[in-house]
């Protein structure tokens, strides 16, 4: 039985693999830079964001831009604001989700839809400064395949969030082989080859920072000071950040599973040592009154340890469960492309009109077929009368049923 061919992992033939020394594509001349902007209830900040971004993009020479905005199930006027901006700027493309699928799905959709030689994910809240984009593009033109934007401080965050973030980076980098650069978010520039590699990853439960780090490539870092939000508030609550941290660790490390083997061995050795101590003490000093308190504490301790271990296993089983479903990462309700054509489901009135025309056509076709069948049947069942033509030749005339 022939073996299936292994999937290709060679990404050296992507368009951006042949950039010239100035960063331009050898085939298209001026490079196209794609900005990916995930949006969830960001209506108050979109106007400020667009003004800041458009001013920066105009200052970048020898480059074309597109802005891919992903509306992640917003419940405010985000989509209306995006449509208004798109009417003023044809470079804006809008991907409208059917519901809220989360920021990781929105980033993935933007990366999937982006057509540029380089892709820059950026938030719409202006905490990531658009003024850094020309610096990142310059580093990319100098040969960097990934340009990371690193925060020099987190003064805009609360003390608790800064402490939790620092602790998370240390724990993650200790447990995982994929090291996350500290204080680096999604704001970065990625070459087309990097984007191609990311699009080949099949995960549905995604931790994008880890995936960005996993693919590797030649990386450079630029530093910046993170500003407060331009408008609105953060969509990440404490509980959501906790779940996000668990997602990151379970996505890139099996140490939490492996450590329970060592915990079990340690507890077994401790139990053996304590049992030996009890036997020796009983042989030397006789039987004491049983220690109900220590017995209860030991049972509760072991029960708690077991429940924690089951919970850790459950996290990994849950990931397997979600991955095995094979559901799409996101669903797109409508695409507002750069061209005049808009890719979307037709409106109900249009569907009814097309359906009515189709039904009418089928009805006429059916009536025509029935009429032909009736004529054929009648011609076979009714005798045809003989008649004498004017030319004294005998002929036949088809039977015709007259309707009164």
UniProtKB/TrEMBL annotation:
The keyword ATP-binding does not apply. Residues 1-27, 367-404 are annotated as: Disordered. The keyword Nucleus does not apply. The chain crosses the membrane at residues 259-280, 292-317. SUPFAM superfamilies: Nucleotide-diphospho-sugar transferases. It is a multi-pass membrane protein. Residues 34-195 form the Glycosyltransferase 2-like domain. It is found in: Cell membrane. GO terms for molecular function: glycosyltransferase activity. One of its GO terms (cellular component) is plasma membrane. InterPro entries: Glyco_trans_2-like (IPR001173), Glycosyltransferase_2 (IPR050256), Nucleotide-diphossugar_trans (IPR029044). Keywords: Cell membrane, Glycosyltransferase, Membrane, Transferase, Transmembrane, Transmembrane helix. Signal peptide: none annotated. Belongs to the glycosyltransferase 2 family. GtrB subfamily. This is Bactoprenol glucosyl transferase.
């Amino acid at each position: 039985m022939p073996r299936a061919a292994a999937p290709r992992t060679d990404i050296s033939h992507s368009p951006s693999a042949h950039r010239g020394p100035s960063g331009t594509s050898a085939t298209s001349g001026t490079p196209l830079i794609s900005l990916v902007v995930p949006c969830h209830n960001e209506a108050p900040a979109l106007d400020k964001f667009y003004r800041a971004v458009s001013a920066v993009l105009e200052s970048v020479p020898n480059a074309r831009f597109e802005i891919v905005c992903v509306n992640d199930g917003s419940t405010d006027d985000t989509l209306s604001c995006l449509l208004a901006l798109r009417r003023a700027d044809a470079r804006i493309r809008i991907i409208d989700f059917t519901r809220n699928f989360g920021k990781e799905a929105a980033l993935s959709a933007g990366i999937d839809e982006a057509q540029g030689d380089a892709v820059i994910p950026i938030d719409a809240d202006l905490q990531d400064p658009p003024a850094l984009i020309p610096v990142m593009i310059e580093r990319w033109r100098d040969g960097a395949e990934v340009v990371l934007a690193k925060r020099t401080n987190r003064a805009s965050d609360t003390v608790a969030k800064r402490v939790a973030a620092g602790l998370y980076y240390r724990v993650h980098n200790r447990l995982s082989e994929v090291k996350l650069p500290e204080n680096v978010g999604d704001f970065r520039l990625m070459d087309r080859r990097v984007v191609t590699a990311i699009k080949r990853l099949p995960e549905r439960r995604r931790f994008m920072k880890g995936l960005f780090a996993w693919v590797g490539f030649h990386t450079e870092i630029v530093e910046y000071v993170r500003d407060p939000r331009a408008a609105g508030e953060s969509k990440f609550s404490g509980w959501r950040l906790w779940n996000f941290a668990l997602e990151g660790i379970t996505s890139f490390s099996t140490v939490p599973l492996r450590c329970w083997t060592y915990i079990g061995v340690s507890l077994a050795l401790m139990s053996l040592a304590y049992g030996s101590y009890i036997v020796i003490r009983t042989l030397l000093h006789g039987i004491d009154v049983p220690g109900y308190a220590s017995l209860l504490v030991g049972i509760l301790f072991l029960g708690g340890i077991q429940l924690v271990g089951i919970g850790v296993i459950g996290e990994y089983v849950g990931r397997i469960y979600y991955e095995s479903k094979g559901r799409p990462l996101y669903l797109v309700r409508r695409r507002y492309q750069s061209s005049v054509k808009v890719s979307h489901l037709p409106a109900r009135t249009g569907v009814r009109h097309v359906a009515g025309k189709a039904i009418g056509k089928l009805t006429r076709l059916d009536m025509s077929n029935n009429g032909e069948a009736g004529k054929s049947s009648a011609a076979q069942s009714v005798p045809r009368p003989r008649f004498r033509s004017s030319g004294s030749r005998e002929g036949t005339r088809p039977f015709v049923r007259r309707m009164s």
